[in-house]
Every structure is written in structure tokens, then in C-alpha cells.
Amino acid sequence: MRIFQVDAFTRTRFTGNPATVVLDADGQSDATMMSVAREFAHAEVAFVLAATAPDHDVRLRFFNARKEAPFVGHATIAAHAVLLALGRRVHGLVRQHSGTGILEVRAHESEQSADSETIFEFRQTMPELDNPLPFKTSLRVAEALRLPAIQLHEVMPARIARKGGSRLLVPVGDPRALDAIAPNFETLISIGAELGIDGIFVFAVKRSSATDELSTESRMFCPALGIAEDPVSGNAHAMLASYLFELGQFGKQSTGFVGHQGRQMKRPGRVSVKLEIDQGSLIAAHIGGNAVIVSEGTLAL
Fold it and tell me: What predicted TM-score, i.e. pTM, was given to this entire model?
């Protein structure tokens, strides 16, 4: 089987979010796939398998060092970057079957770049948003992050979003506050178990005074999943889109935003988020990004 190391949500090697992609994994047992994921524990692993029905073109299964995941956004982008590079897919739409069902992954040339760079984009339907977190609980979370309470956003509350996984979205008022976060991971695991969440996504909103365009910067911590800090998360940005839309943060002409993540880990990445709105309601978010192949080889089994 061929194996690739790919950096997703970036155009530059050794930045963004790393993923391992294993091709032609048909016939491999779950135990073997889990063993591979443990061997390459620095990155989640996408196993590419042949389609088994006419309603999809390719199957993907995702494993980390602890368990199988139904869907992983950055590993999806990584896998399709490999398939495109090898001529196993073309630009346009490919139907992918994975643990959350069938979704379309679109590959197209970037409209913002003169270098004909490819953007990979998948559609995420909106999560469920819990009621705002009680302020006392938000203070406990801030303390576990070693984040001064004064840095919590004055208006926007912390809320849990649930879609496949679950993340606590914690807004801060100043992007500079993100640099000072130094989590107590044992406490975060305890709070996460209490709230029924897999991770904590801390973010700040930045708005251009000239154009009113919105961007975000964020960090995500998932110690319960064995990931101290996730460099760049596509799924969390889909959750964030729903959160910001519900709070009326987008202007009337807004079609989306750009999310920046990973700078504090020296793995900066960029997530494109496009809003799909129907009759005034947010139906889905289209999550996009670049990917670059770092290395390739043969997996001996």
C-alpha cells in the first residue's frame, strides 16, 4: 500500500494540519488500520478504499491513535489532494462515503491565486447549538485555559456545538489573548467529560473597518481525544459559522469568512468558509483549503 504525508489547509510544507493518507486499503482489518494509526500517531490517518455502491465514487475511513472517527475534514482534503495528484480524480465533484454518510468534495482552481492552485472543498450541514454556557462554567473553562476572565468576550457567550463530534466554542475579545493560553489539560479533560464535549475551540473575531469583512483566529484543544492542540480544524470552523450567523455577525453582503489557526504551534493554516443561505437561514457551510504532499512511500504489511 502506498502511504503519503500531507499538510492540509496550507500551501506551504510543514505548516497547516498534517494527515497521513493510505491508498488501496481494501481488505485490511480494523485492527491493522488501528495499528497504522498508532504508528503514525502524530497525524490522523485517512484510508482510501474503493466504492461499494453506485451512489459514491470513493470510500474513506479515518483513524487516530485511539479510535476510528466518522469524518475528519483536514484528512479528507489531504486524501483528495493525493487522488488528484495521482490522476485518480479530476477537478469537479467527487462523492465520498465515510462515517457521516455521503458528501461531495469539490476540487477547483483558486479564484484568488494566479498560480492555478487547487482548493478542495466539502459541505457541512449545520450543527446543533446548545444554550449559552452558564457564566460560572465559562469562568472554570477560562481558568483551566489560564485565560484571565477579563479576556472572555463581553457579549458573545461560550456555547457547545454538536455535529458528529462536539466542541465548546469560547470567544475572546482580543486575538492577542490567544497567545497567552497555557492549558491545564487534566482540568480540561474533567470539564469536557462533565459537559460531554470532545474539545474546546477558542476564537477571536477580526473585522475590517474598510470593508466590514470578517475573519477569525483560533486555537483548539482536544486532550480527551489524545490531541493536546489541533493545528487547523475544518469541522470546528463549520460550527463557528453557525454560531456567528445565529448572533448576526455577518453583514448583508457577506458570503463567508476566512479562519486562521495554528500560528501558535508554528503550523499556520487557512480555512475558507462559504455560507450557504436559503431564505434567510444558514443551511450549510462549505469548508475549503489547499493541501501539499510532503512525502510518499510504501507501507509494508
Answer: 0.94
